[in-house]
Amino acid sequence: MVLAGLLAAGAAHGLPSGPATVCATWPAACDDGPPDCTLCHTLPPARNAFGLDVEAALLPGAPRPLAPADFAAALPDALAAVADGDSDGDGFANRAEVEAGTRPADAASRPGVGPAPGCTSANPDWDVCGYDAPYAFRKLHLDVCGASPTFEALTAFRALGPDAQRAALGEALDACLATPFWQGRDGVLWQLGHAKIRPLQAVKSGLGAGPVPLANYDDDYGLFVWTQSGDRDAREVLTADYYVEVRENPTRYRLVTARAGQNAGTNHRAGMLTTRWFAVINTMFTPVNRTAAAQAYRAYLGLDIARSEGLIEPEAPLVDYDDKGVEAEACAVCHRTLDPLTYPFTRYHGITGVSTGAYDRARMTRFGPEEGARIREVPEAGFIFGEPVADLVAWARVAADSEAFARATVADYWRLLVGHDPTDAEAEAFDGLVDRFRGEHAYQVERMLHDLIALEAYGAP
Prior knowledge:
Blueprint: H1 17-25, H2 49-57, H3 68-82, H4 94-100, H5 133-145, H6 151-158, H7 162-177, H8 180-183, H9 188-197, H10 218-227, H11 236-239, E1 243-247, E2 252-256, H12 276-283, H13 290-301, H14 329-342, E3 382-384, E4 387-389, H15 392-401, H16 403-418, H17 427-438, H18 445-452, H19 456-459
Antiparallel strand pairs: 1-2, 3-4
Helix pairs in contact: 1-3, 2-3, 5-7, 9-10, 12-13, 13-14, 16-17, 16-18
């Protein structure tokens, strides 16, 4: 992620030269790409402890705000001045933390020191020094089947050799992935979809309808579960031109080309981004539906603009089409990314009765000047990751093929099964899993899960 960068002391001016200067000064810090703006900031322009130290070393006494050229020229010396300091007081020098990929302003984020040498397990049941297959077997049943294996099954598993244990783990995973506990209504996958779908029963239609039934989010859960199961490509959560019907007793799913109430035409569908529910809960009555774009960016790419994540400024001017003041410098640092992300969403109706969620090329012409002096000029073409896209279907394709999508998808299941975000010690294993998900796993979640449960991060007690 190349974000807006370090900000000049005393003013909220985004300076894109910051990350490049960090890379030029400390090359080892950029093995995985330039740092984002959270290196020095909490929420721009506010600085964290490391950012305050850098600020203090940037041309002390010079008038603020610094000119971009002065900032760029002075930053290498300021970084050198704080390199050996310890801004967060965790015992690790700032430069060592940045080069290790940890955060020099967060005492809880520290370079890994590796396992203790000569580890000897004194636990009579589990091997606490590494991957323990019987432990993984029991954990797998709890996580994916929802119940412990029987004593007899665990005893039989312990009696197997290493290769047979690996095969038995894979067989157990396949069996558990087909259960209602994993795939059924309110099962694990439904719960994983909550943050993406954001259900609100009060406005639900269909089964369990609320008092103001506007859309049936069961369709969204159906599409989510469908793309996360079987041998299907998980990217279709953003690119599907179909819907999925949910049937009950037991819960099962069926691909369909059309659904009552789903109004986006086949050529204008982009999976979860163009369902009726997405329009109801995210666009509502808004002409320039920034909330929809921000939710898609956060839910499917793991990038939260409110936390200054994924701020990539395109080569296009920022225009305040709806008179919201987005060109003000304190706002522009985020809106230079958010607004171009949003334009492709603007041709889909929000809550408009029978047209809710429908694609309408002329939608912006239906708003008057009270929504903004230039509201009718809002383009449909926009940008994502700095790449121009003609419409939302193209936006979704770029998003689905991005590394951010793969990382966000794998991170969802890592947190679900491992129980926490990857630690510094687990980063290499996580990165390898992401690479394989994009490659040999062919974006199939279940293939990736077979790989995940074989990692020490999962199978170490």
